[in-house]
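Dear Dr. H.,

I hope your travels went smoothly. While you were away I took the liberty of generating a structure for the chain from your last submission, since the lab meeting agenda had it listed for discussion. I wanted you to have the full record in hand beforehand rather than looking at slides cold. The sequence, exactly as received, is reproduced here:
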Amino acid sequence: MTLPHRHIAKGMIIGLILALLATLLFALSLLIGPVRTPCHEVALILLGETSTKSSWQYIVLETRLPQALTATLCGASLAASGLMLQTAFRNPLAGPDVFGVSSGASLGVALVMLLWGGSVSTALFSWTVGAAFVGAMAVTAIIFLFSTIMRHGLMLLIVGMMVGYVASSVVSLLNYFATEEGVRSFMIWGLGHFGGVSMALMPAFSTVTLVGLTACLLLIKPLNIIQLGAQYAESMGVATRRLRNVLLLLVGLLTATTTAFCGPIAFIGLAVPHIARLLLGNDDQRALMPCTILCGSVVALLCNLVCSLPTDGGNVPINAVTPL
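The corresponding predicted structure, in token form, is as follows:
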């Protein structure tokens, strides 16, 4: 067996293990929570049968199931975004946060919370999600504009960091002049959560993320080529600047969607691609991209499971768990 084929075979085995682990964690996410729900009742509810307690049916279908689906898609999206940025810019520290997309989303949410006195009620939730998405995509548009001017990837990384710092500075000023309730609400949003996508919103959320992940898989071949250097990639017919711009738009869309609904989730976009590389022992995108997507889902589901463990103080915020 040749070396590339050996890499693919190893990647398939690791991918299968990660898929089974993700399935197990998904099932546990439906079973474990502050309210004890019997296994057979959960199975009946998922099969469409009526539960003996209406509260169990609501908890499984309206709380645990959407949270597990959101964690699966959010983790996969952030991990794939981080891998594409690290590959395209050949920088191991690149991630969705570096380009300031999360800071743009935070700025949009901060503006909404300040205008409405700081309380994010159910009625204002759609405004918060919309503001986060608009803020994130606005930063993506700014960076995309600079990408059409700058040829050097490192300079574009620096511009992204600077835009993020500017957005964070404006957020700090808004927090300074906001009410105490506003500061507290914004802080809670910034800790991240997977409970922001209801089953009614799940079709829109899953469509955007699944289309984005499919596009990531379609870019495996040019990502493999660009790892060998920009000059070699262009000699092989890869338009490196066009590829970089497509990656920026794709990463911006995935990060904006996940941040709008879940808040700025830390760690996953930066660290999971490196975890996948350690598992595989190579950088072949044919194995690395699928394994990174699966590994992102596993990490996010594990964090969601830990946050859902029964505690006296309710669910633990996601960003308090992801680095641990």
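Two observations you may find useful: The chain has a mean pLDDT of 84. The first helix runs from residue 3 to 31.

With kind regards,
E. W.
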